[in-house]
Amino acid sequence: MDAINGNKRFNQEGYILLESLIAFLLITLCIGFYLPMTANLLLTIKKEKIEVDLVRIAYEQSQKIALGQDIDSTWQTGEITYGINLSETNQKKGIHIQYNGRKKKMDILSTEITNP
After folding, report:
1. 94 Cβ partners below 8 Å, 6+ apart?
2. DSSP line for 67-103
3. Is pLDDT of 116 > 60?
4. Where in the chain are the domains?
5. Running DSSP on this structure, what letter comes out for residue 9?
6. Is the pTM of this model over 0.70?
């Protein structure tokens, strides 16, 4: 009759330990999924930053050519140094930018600046 009235107390020894272990397991699993995803995201961001730098440098050097200025031979952004070369083939000018095996080539169709 005590069990029906709710007067009987259940033996709850070990319940807090089990609850703590389950919480620790869930936190560990969340961190285990989060860290590799974050590391991969940081590597992707670094690669994309280099690609954006390559395009930006090519654009800025093409502007120098359009203004009749000499281009830079190297470009340094942070700790990264890029090599810049100018090429001319068949009356076309182009800019080649290199960094760690990555190359970006930009062909320049015209060096004339027109004002509307």
Report:
1. 86, 87, 88, 105, 106, 107, 108
2. TTPPPPSEEEETTEEEEEEEEEETTEEEEEEEETTEE
3. no
4. 14-108
5. P
6. no
